[in-house]
Design a protein that fits this description.
By secondary structure, the chain is α/β, with parallel strands linked by helices. 30% of the residues lie in helices and 19% in strands. The chain has helices spanning 27-30, 34-38, 41-46, 54-57, 111-123, 133-139, 155-161, 186-199, 205-212; strands at residues 14-19, 24-25, 63-69, 75-77, 81-83, 87-88, 97-100, 126-129, 147-148, 166-167, 172-175, 178-181. α8 (186-199) packs antiparallel against α9.
Length: 229
């Protein structure tokens, strides 16, 4: 049975998961999940003493990670990487925070993948797509009537193909529990905004982790970029 969670004040372990297609997933699209590791009790417990004050250690989150695909067998990431999944669709518990990155452009999700994405969205507290991961959400029927973004060079075509979605040209955008980002490293901008929204502010573990990790703090409207790429 689902146990809904308030991410700002979690009463239990936060189940964070990456949904992987039966295809190759962009490594940099799913790498931003590591910010949750930086905020986790396990990481903070192992962090060198003298660098992280006790009052920040006390803010660490109880997080568990799930890497999920249809079969539960190893999944492919770009650059020749293989990742051992932790769950199949059949064994995965309800996820609180979901991340989906771009898969091979020639691959089309099967019905089992779309069904699992829809089911996971319904029970999640936050659903994050990075780069072309927004196409998986679109194919699964999650974006109709919502505000979303994706890779900048694709936005004009997406507006024509899916006019029922309000496509915006931003590094990231939030519509309720749906968070979508532009291409690749814009996922880091999204994650900065996400963790700041739920656990951030002055004097927080989030502030420390973002500074330590040199997370980018860039204009959400691409004002710092010339051109469309």
């Amino acid at each position: 049975m689902s146990d809904p969670i308030n991410l700002a004040k979690p009463h239990r372990t936060i189940r964070t998961g990456v949904i992987l297609a039966n295809s190759e997933t962009e490594l940099l699209d799913v790498a931003p999940i590591d910010i949750f590791n930086a905020l986790s009790k396990k990481f903070v417990h192992d962090f060198p003493e003298g660098i992280l004050p006790d009052h920040l250690r006390a803010q660490a989150l109880d997080v568990e990670f799930h890497w999920v695909n249809e079969t539960g067998k190893p999944a492919a990431l770009t650059c020749g990487l293989r990742i051992n999944t932790t769950d199949s669709f059949a064994t995965c518990p309800p996820l609180d925070i979901i991340i989906i990155g771009a898969h091979d452009a020639k691959y089309t999700l099967n019905e089992a993948e779309c069904d699992f994405i829809r089911k996971s969205y319904e029970t999640s507290a936050a659903f994050i797509t990075i780069c072309g991961g927004s196409l998986s959400a679109l194919q699964s029927g999650l974006l109709e009537g919502k505000t979303a973004t994706g890779p900048r060079p694709m936005l004009d075509d997406l507006r024509k193909a899916a006019p029922g979605v309000k496509w915006v040209e931003k590094r990231w955008v939030r519509d309720g529990k749906l968070w979508t980002s532009g291409a690749l490293l814009n996922g880091l901008d999204l994650m900065r905004a996400f963790v700041t929204e739920y656990w951030g502010g002055e004097g927080t573990l989030v502030e420390f982790a973002l500074a330590l990790g040199a997370y980018p703090d860039r204009d959400v409207n691409y004002a710092d970029v010339q051109g469309k790429l």
